[in-house]
Design goal:
Pfam families: PCMT. This protein is an alpha+beta fold and about 400 residues long. It is about 30% helix and about 35% strand.
Amino acid sequence: MSCESVERRAALVAALQEKGAIRSERVAAAVAAVPRHLFAPEASLAAAYADDIVVTKRDPRGAATSSVSAPWLQALMLEQAGIEPGMRCLEIGSGGYNAALMAELAGPDGCVTSIDIDADIVARARRHLAAAGTKRVRVVVGDAEAGVPEDAPFDRIVVTVGAWDVPPAWVAQLTMTGRIVVPLLLHGHTRTAAFDRAGDTLVSRSHELCGFVAMQGLGARPDRVVPLGPDVELRFDDNVPVEADGVRAALRGPRAERWSGITVDPQEPFDGLQLWLATQATSFGQLCSTRTDAARALVDPATPPRTPAVVDGGSLAYHALRRVDPATGRHEFGAYGHGPAAVPLAERMVELIQAWDREHRNGRPPVICVQPAGTPVDRLRPGRVLRKRHTVVTVDWR
C-alpha cells in the first residue's frame, strides 16, 4: 500500500474530525484503516480521498444510481450507528467501502451483510472488498424491501439510499435493542436518522440533513413532478392537489413579498427551519430549480436546487432570502407568493418562520418516531403525523 494513500487517509481523518463528522476514536481508526481508493478505482487518488461523492453508476438519463458517499456523511452515519465489536450488521445499498468500515468496527467477532438490487454493483463491491482484503462481509443481490432474513437478527442496520418509508422487514429483523440508521424522506426533506427500537416503534436519537441516491425496487417512491418552466419544477412526495396550469400562469404574474424580520448569518445552517416547514406547512412540496438565467427569470428561491414551497390550487409560495447587511452577508428569511392566494400563503410561511425562531431555533431537535401503519390513533406518539405506506411517522417539536 502506497505511502501517499496512507497519508491521504490520515489527512481525511483529520479533516473529518475538524468538521465534527468523526467524533470517536473507533470511527477515526476505521477510516484510517480502510483504503477508500480501492473502492473508487475510476477516481484519482486525490479525488478518492476528497470529502465528496464518487459516482459509480448512472442511469440512461445520467442520474446517479450508485455512488461512494461523501466521507463526512459515511463517518456521521457510523457515529450514529454506534457499531460495537461482535455486532451483526446489515447494510442496505452496496458500494463496498461503507461495508468495509462497518466490518472494521464490528471486528473479528462481528459480521456484515450488504444487499443491493443491482447485480453489477454487488459484483463490483465483492471485487473491491477482496482487493482490500476485507473479511466478514457477505454481499448479496436482492430487493432490500424484504431485508435479509437468513442472516437476521441484526444489531445494527445502516441504510445508504434515500428511503421514503421503513418496510416492516427492517424492524422485524432488528434485535429488540437494535438500532437502524436511515436517510428518511419527510416531504422531500431527507434526514439521516438513528432510530432505537422500542417494541414495534422506532424512536430517533439523532438526525442530520443529508442527501442520497433514491431507493430502487419495491421501496422506490418517485416524486410527483410538476414542470413550471425552463429548469423549474415542483416536486411532491404525496398527493398534494395542485392546479399546474394555474401555477405556471401565476409565476408569470406579479409577486407578493413578505418578510419575517428573522435573520441568519452566512455560516449558520438553517436546515432545522426547512424541516420545520416540511412538517408544519400544509400542501407542502419542494420548488426545484437551477441557477440558469431562464430559471432566475421565473423564481428566486432561498436554496436552489430544492426550496420549501406550499401550494393552494393555482397559487404558490416559497421560501426566500434577501441580504440585509452587505458588510456581514446577513440575510432575512421571507416568502414570495404568486397567484390568487399569494398573500395568505406567503404570510402563513412567514408566520411559521417566526414561530420556528421563537420556539425552536435554539431548542432541542424534534423527536421522530416510526410506528406501523395500523397503529390506533390513541397509540400514536405525539407530533405532526406523516402517513406512509408501511408506517406512520410523527415529528414531535415539543
